[in-house]
Design a protein that fits this description.
This protein is an alpha/beta fold. Helices cover 54% and strands 9% of the residues. It starts with 7 loop residues before the first helix and ends with a helix.
Length: 725
Amino acid sequence: MKTLPEKYYLTHFYELLDYLAQTSWDLLSEDQRAKINAFKSLSQDAQCLLVRVVNRKRDFVCADELVYEEIKDFNQAYLELKRFDWLCHADSRLALASLVSELNKTQLIALAKAHALSDTPVKSAKKALWLDYILAQLDNLEPSSEILQPYFSSPFKSDLAYFLFLFFGRLGGGLPQFSMRDLGVMHTQNDREQGNAHFEHQEEALSAYLYCNLCFDLKELAPESVLKLAKCVSAGEYPKPVGQLAQIKYDHLCHKLANMVADGHAALSESLLTLSAHPKAQEKYIRLLYSKGDHQRCKNLIEQLLDAPGDEKLLFFAEDFYRLKFTQTRTSLLTDMLRDSGEPLALDEAYVGYVEQGLVELFGRSGTTAYHCENRLWRSLFCLSFWYELFEDPRNAFSNEFERTPKCIKDNSFYQVFESEIEQRLNAFCDNAQLLNWLVKQASEKFGSHNRLMYWHPDGLAQLFEFAKYAPIDAVCKHLRAMSKDFNGLKDGYPDLMICQNGVKFIEVKAPGDSLRRNQLITIKKLVESGFDVAIQTVQWQVQPAQPYVIVDIETTGGKKEHDKITEIAMIKVVNGQIVEKWHSLINPQRRIPRYITELTGIDNEMVNGAPIFSEVIDDIDAFSKDAIFVAHNVNFDFGFIKAEFARLERYFKRAKLCTVQLGRKWIPGHASYSLGKICQDLNIPLQGHHRALNDAMATVELFNLINEKRLMGGDKEKEQDAER
């Protein structure tokens, strides 16, 4: 494992200062610039000590805790920092309150005893009670007391917080991330030179820092502090936000505050909603106006949004709400889309959680190839279409090696900055061949390049290339243009499936209990506007006799898939209750079979000596079980072992699965035991040579067919009940 050099943290701090000097010097105050220059003139021991102090999570540190071998003379370094006001003790009432709040209960009790304070809480009282008591006694505390004197803080800590904000462009970044990079724990683009500053000027940076902190602190505020902040914001006592980030945070702050004070302060909440451009705040305000009976004002506001929409989601809401409240149409867009979705398709309940896979297999059995693509297809298309502009053009340079999202994507200005290049590229996509050639060229050159917007995977690229062959080129260009103008609004929500047959069709799958989110509907609507064929396909859980099932049984060297191995596999394919194909083989586990396993199964070391090892049959197992539901008695045992064997060979094994133990308890209730031997005996199912894979699999086939008959009957009863309702 990598180790860090002795003074790694000082090196990292200087790396931060170098970044500020190169990109953000004008974003600092004169005092901060002077502090940086003064820091550089300190002795190295003093620099090390100061960086250690300001990098602590707490504001106050105890001298006894600052024992570092690389600081040769701690006392001298401390005195040097104290002399030049880099360190200070809790001399004021406010600082004393901050220090006391960081002490533990034992220290609070000791503090009360040292100052001979009266009427103290009992020792068993909770820390919160002791803290409240000590805070009420601040005037009686002596800052130079033995307990408080070792603690000190640095005013430079607040400067460091601002420096880190300028470096990362957000709150939450810290020097430990430099350490994680050096240790190889965090991946960065370490060959990237320092690039752009996150902010254009100091006023923008300070405004963003203010509102980011107000939003961050909001969740920790007591109710009375929340109310006070809400009143201050509503009264305009804070400066107007400057710059995009500050505006976003201000809108978020007003929206959050409006929600937090809504109970009991309705007028204040409404005032805050009117100040916020957050889409949810505007939506809530419109709904509030309508509920209050102010219909005309509500209608006027919606019409303003329809004329000049600033957000796709808000536009969708405005259109839908207007249709529902101010026209004769009483159905929503969602209702209309679902109404046109056609009859639901039936899938076995094994596909709960894997509904897309179930439909892909269902379409495949009818000769139609469907791809499960969702957002991956569109993100890959966008990135490969505009790779240079996104990741290599100097105008879109990253601020530093830690950044993963291009600046123009973060602030949604991609089309504004690169309009000429985007239009030129789209004009070059004059037909499908041109589009495909460009995507193949970009993928071959950039494959594996690290970025945050797309995931490299051969299957994903294969889907993209199929799309490029058949998609209507005008629709492709139109939607790429829409993504360029509002990537943040169209980066997700794409339909689940794609079918490339006589063109391209997208299908959004809606299983029972699923709801389509607004961002999905907005994206679907935009795809339709671009010229794509999009449908919503509903699904119902129902036993399908024509569904292929593969009934599996295995024997192993033991019960732990992590280190035991498979010795025998049997697979039987069943369609419409009939066995259509079998596959069976002993497997050489490449280790000795324990005696107790041989006694149980009859499989000994000599029997498997000439058998194939798992890697020699993995393709057969994969092919035989593909596009079928995996069924076994105690399915997680059999499935888990096979999946583990695939994983050892760096292969992924995923199938929808059913367990005849669980299904048996549900559909054939009342048996004392559901072990395969006992349940087969109770149901008169032949089972000879128990604990041999093929024999157990054949018995499980009969058990499963019996269960499926019950499942089919149960489904028919549910249909009859639904019809009666």
